Amino acid sequence: MKTYFIAGHARLPAGMAAQNMYDVLTITAEVDGTYGVILEANCTLATEHGRQFIGQLLKGFSLRHSLDEPIEEIRAYYLGKASNALISALKDLHKQYGLKHD
Questions:
Q1: Cα gap 26→92, rounded to integer Å
Q2: How far does CA 50 lie from the centroid of its chain?
Q3: DUF3870 domain: from which residue to which, for each copy (predicted)?
Q4: Phi/psi class of residue 24: alpha, beta or left (left: φ > 0; alpha: ψ in -120 to 50)?
Q5: What is the pLDDT of residues 41-73, one digit of tens each?
Q6: Taking CA atoms, which of 3, 20, 26, 83 is between 20 and 30 Å from 45?
Q7: Are 83 and 74 spatial neighbours (Cβ–Cβ below 8 Å)?
């Protein structure tokens, strides 16, 4: 099975711990080449726990479908300052995937 490694980026809001390390939040994902399903995901949140949480939250969603469900998952279960940046980075990830498959 072939997989793709894709990255999506978004600017972090001011005052975040991760902003001291990065100006941009990045979500990376290993994506199944056939169905577009996120097999593994990671991000540049400041804590390992946060990175693992987002990875588990995004795992299993297909980038071939609408982002409505994973966006709602982020809004419902991630209650930190980076929620809008995570959503923007996910949208950019989706866009990057679409550029490869249009």
A1: 9
A2: 12
A3: 5-97
A4: beta
A5: 999 998 999 999 999 999 999 999 999 999 999
A6: 3
A7: yes
Structure tokens at 28: 């990376």
Please report which confidence band the pLDDT of residue 26 belongs to, taking 50, 70 and 90 as the band edges. Answer: very high
Tell me which residue of 99, 102, 93 sits closest to 31, measured CA to CA: 93
Which domains are assigned to the chain?
3-101 (3.90.1010.10)
Q: Dmax of the chain from CA atoms?
A: 42
The residues, any chain, with a CB within 8 Å of residue 80's CB and separated by 6 or more, are 45, 50
Q: Which residue has the higher pLDDT, 13 or 20?
A: 13
How do beta strands 38-43 and 3-11 pair?
Answer: unpaired
Is residue 57 within 8 Å of 74, Cβ to Cβ? yes
